[in-house]
Amino acid sequence: MTNLQIAECRLDRRRIALVAAAKALFIEKGYEGTTLGDIVERAGGSLSTLYKLFGNKDGLLEAVISQGSPSGDMLIADALSVGCTPQQILYRLAQSLHPHFLHPDTVAIVRIVIARSMAEPNFARQFFERTSTRTRTALEAMFEGW
Hints:
mainly alpha, about 85% helix, about 150 residues
C-alpha cells in the first residue's frame, strides 16, 4: 500500500466513525443539543477533519441520513430486479420499507430532519432533491413501465 492509500483508508475509517458518533449523539441529545465537539470527542479525530469531510453540521446530518439506509430508488430497483408481477413487486417493496421506517433510529432521524427542515428551508429543499425526488422518479418510471 502506498502512503496515499494508507491516508485514504485512515480518512475513510475516520468518516465512518464520525458518522456513527453523529448518529448516536443526534438520537441521544437531539441535533440542536449536539455540538461538533461532542461528535469529535466520541469518534476521535479533530474538528478540522470533520470540517474537511462534511463541511459543517448539516453536511454531517446529510451523511447520517444517506449512510443510514438504502435510498428509496435503490429499494425500488431491488424490488424490480426479481422480475415478478407488479403485485409481487409492490409487496416486496412494502416489505423492505416497513421495518426500515418503523425502526426507532429511523423515526428519530426523520424527526430531526423535519425539525431541521422547518428551521432551514434551504436544508429542506436540498434534502427533498436528494431523496424524495429520486424516489418519486423511480416510482414514476416503475408505474410507467407497467
